[in-house]
Known about the structure:
The chain is an alpha/beta fold. It contains 15 helices and 17 strands.
Amino acid sequence: MLHEIEHEAIAHGDPAPSCCMVIFGAGGDLTKRLLLPALYNLIRSGLLPEKFALIAVDRLEMTSEMYREHIRLAISAFASDKHYAQQLDVVNLEKLLNVIHYQQGDFSDSKFYQELSEKIHDIQKSNQIQKNVVFYLAVAARFFGSIVEKLGVAQLLKESENSWRRVIVEKPFGHDVESSKVLNLELRKQLHERQIYRMDHFLGKETVQNIMMLRFSNAIFEPLWNREHIDHIQITVAETVGVEKRAAFYESTGAMRDMVPNHVFQLLALTTMEPPASFSADAVRNEKTKVLHSVHPINPERESVRAQYIGGQRDELPLKGYREEDGVSEASKTETYIAMKLTIDNWRWAGVPIYLRTGKGLSVRQSEIAIQFKNPPLSIFKNTNLDALSPNILVLKLQPDEGAVLIFGAKVPGPKFEIGQVHMDFHYKDYFQNAPSTGYETLVYDCMIGDATLFQRSDSVVAGWEIVQPLLDYWKKDDAYLATYTAGSEGPQESEELLSGSGRSWRRL
Ligand SMILES: NC(=O)c1ccc[n+]([C@@H]2O[C@H](COP(=O)([O-])OP(=O)(O)OC[C@H]3O[C@@H](n4cnc5c(N)ncnc54)[C@H](OP(=O)(O)O)[C@@H]3O)[C@@H](O)[C@H]2O)c1
């Protein structure tokens, strides 16, 4: 039986409390491209603990000096990325590099954890760092259970009144209902739920957090946020890229598993949940889980479309089809696009269709949530019937252009009574100086200060898989239909048909 110890969350904006962070998989892609640049941004913003050390674990043989050099190059490379566009801050970069220690080892070997324990202890002692530790598992999901088990056996997850231990795991959190439950059980054998931080970097994006701010800090939206006023909702996460170098991963994953139970359902939950009792982690996560539990079972045949991209073109340049990509089987049935219609069985949303679509190889990169309002009950303008009125739409733009747009009708100047659609536009970049973050800064900092609001809880993960499980089962059948769409297009025709039966249509990408 694990002994429960509560630790108070620290106020946002203060430097995080003194701790060590141990990254497993420190030589990998995620660490290099996102995690270390995020730590660099945190040190620049004064949010990293004053007494801090990073212990980088990987199997490559190298010294701390060699690893620091590797990181210096990585951060310099990503500093030219648009997210890190400001000049490299050499002072803070050096400050960060100085607290990085490399520990070579094989994390599947139990003996390694004794060495790690000693290393952590030595670093804590010689740098007067408190006993708090974040373990970041930047490794494939199949290792999560065994690493946590070994950390537990080595007493590395043991907390005290004055110190905490937390573990961050990266998605995917299982590949179906069963495996997500198994993973939860494996983690819970050694950890309390509150020690587990399930990272979905989408939730760290300012615009995703802004969904809650927009809904619950502005009195004008919430009264309209229900079946009386909303006709339907469209959630789109569209990517232009194909599978790139991730074919091995994608072939066994596909668009559904990769995007829907995690990113897309988190957007769905934030958009449709009831107002939480407070902004505390559990109050928010209770509401998100509750709304996922209210999703009506989806009919796979009538309410979902899966598709795969075939050769096409963009800007007159040829684009490969999915089956022509390196590492993809010529007979692959993996979907690269998924669209579905769902409804929510509660009083707020009964009868309001919600359409979701996500895919690769599409015409543009665009993530947004579009709330389409109902038309007025009657048109009083001559020669203008209700169908000709353009609907009011509130579009929450998540990427690449972050902000919100309210679309409404206005009179076209002139003697005739003509209505034109106009846009009231808010762009984050016009109002706030901070560059949009990749999401990792916020989430790593939140974990250090003990705020789990933006991390997924075990019941919410399982609830997501439960919604998609009937579709996964249905698609296992040999004759389950797989549509196609041309790379560089807006997706398959079949996806349009999901809406057209009810007289609705997708917003153009
Ligand atoms: N990359 C992304 O953009 C991204 C985005 C979102 C989520 N994620 C998730 O983040 C996690 C990490 O992804 P990644 O792309 O960074 O993976 P990766 O590039 O394969 O990194 C994993 C690192 O761990 C090392 N490693 C593997 N087995 C080891 C062992 N037994 N002992 C010590 N080190 C070992 C690997 O070394 P070898 O190279 O020698 O195997 C590699 O350096 C995954 O769960 C992934 O799903 C990644």
